[in-house]
Amino acid sequence: MRWLDKILGLFSVDLAIDLGTANTLVYSRGMGIVVNEPSVVAVEQKSGKVIAIGAEAKRMLGRTPTHIMAIRPMRDGVIANFEIAEKMLSHFIRKAHHRTTFVRPRVIICVPSRITQVEQRAVSDSAELAGAREVYLIEEPIAAAIGAGLPISEPCGSMVVDIGGGTTDVAVISLAGTVYSESVKVAGDKMDDAIVSYIKRKHNLLIGDHMAERIKCEIGSAYPLEERRIFTVKGRDLVSGIPRTLVLGDAEVREALSEPIAAITNAIRVALENTPPELAGDIIDRGIVLTGGGSLLRGMDVRLREETNLPIITVDDPLTTVVLGTGKALDQIDLLRKISIASR
Fold it and tell me: Which of 127, 140, 164, 262 could in theory staple to 132 by disulfide, Cβ–Cβ 3.0 to 4.6 A?
């Protein structure tokens, strides 16, 4: 029935999806970004019924009664819970498509570099079951490079560092292909975990992931700040078992974040060491393009500039660069076929 799919495709709106560990963004051709919500699903334990998806479900994290679970189906940039991921994708595709269920969209999904074939299949299957007519997968650094306006089809080197929620992807790109890529499962979530562990170890205070994320956003930094910042932390005392508050300074948060930031820096160093000399010369001239939500951490560009002695360029809107780049690929089918790592 492929002829029917082609006819229905004429009435379909193609979608580009940044299926992230922290947030899922959907770009609709001709309309721009139509969905930007947390990758969280709240379900009833016994029946498996979905209660909430996205922002509403995220507000439930750590606050649900025993019969409700708030689940993040993505972990380290890939699907950890196939069934829940399919329901989440289906919800977002329906929300973005605004068409009859008989009309199925073409969907491009960006995934971390070095994703395994099993993980590729899981993403593709989820998208097809969620209602996609055709599914293309492209690597996040390639999508980020397109979104940042880099000349990826030219015979010159461009280096992209995408610090997301679950993974940090580092890639050297030339002639619409990845010359070298490095992917580490250290990004925004690991930073939150590091803050939770530090406060637990140093202050005997247990805090939740949501509080850790707030600390990171409010006073977190990768490089010393000009003015000292403080934040009032609320949690449960591990000794007395009762709630208490703690005033935390930016220096302590920076200490807590030192390990994940070092892991990201090391991944960039490894990529630079494995870059061919000619392309390395291009990177000296062009610099390293920084994108993803993790790049918004204060002083991250300064820290990386100091570590690599290379120019660091942070894109205007790091949170949407990947999905905008994926969206641009919708309009260039020849380029899409060239850069896709899998299609169905």
Answer: 127
Q: At residue 208, what is the residue type?
A: G
- As to burial, measured by CB atoms within 10 angstroms (0-12 exposed, 13-18 middle, 19+ buried), residue 15 is buried
CB 255 within 8 A of CB 198: yes
Q: What is the pLDDT of residues 215-264, one digit of tens each?
A: 999 999 999 999 999 999 999 999 999 999 999 999 999 999 999 999 99
Do 87 and 223 share a domain, yes or no?
Answer: no
| Residue type present at position 341 | I
Q: What's the CATH number where 312 sits?
A: 3.30.420.40
Q: Please write the tens of the pLDDT for every residue from 17-31.
A: 998 889 999 999 888
Token pair of 154 as six digits: 């030219």
Give the per-residue pLDDT at 278: 92
Contacts of 280 (CB under 8 A, 6+ apart): 157, 272
Domain extent for 230: 188-257
Q: Residue 83 and residue 125: Cα distance in Å, rounded?
A: 11
Tokens matching residue 171:
């890639």
Token match 């610099």: residue?
Answer: 287
Give the number of domains in the chain: 3
Whether residues 130 and 213 fall in one domain: no
CA distance 329 to 283: 24
Q: Which of 254, 247, 153, 142 minimizes the C-alpha distance to 198?
A: 254
pTM value > 0.70 = yes
Contact 179/173 with Cβ under 8 angstroms? Answer: yes
Contact 137, 124 (CB under 8 A): yes
Residues in the chain, how many? Answer: 344
Q: Region 149-170: what's the mean pLDDT?
A: 92
Query: Please, are residues 140 and 326 in contact by the beta-carbon 8 Å criterion?
Result: no
For residue 201, what are the CA distances in angstroms to 143, 195, 242? 39, 10, 17
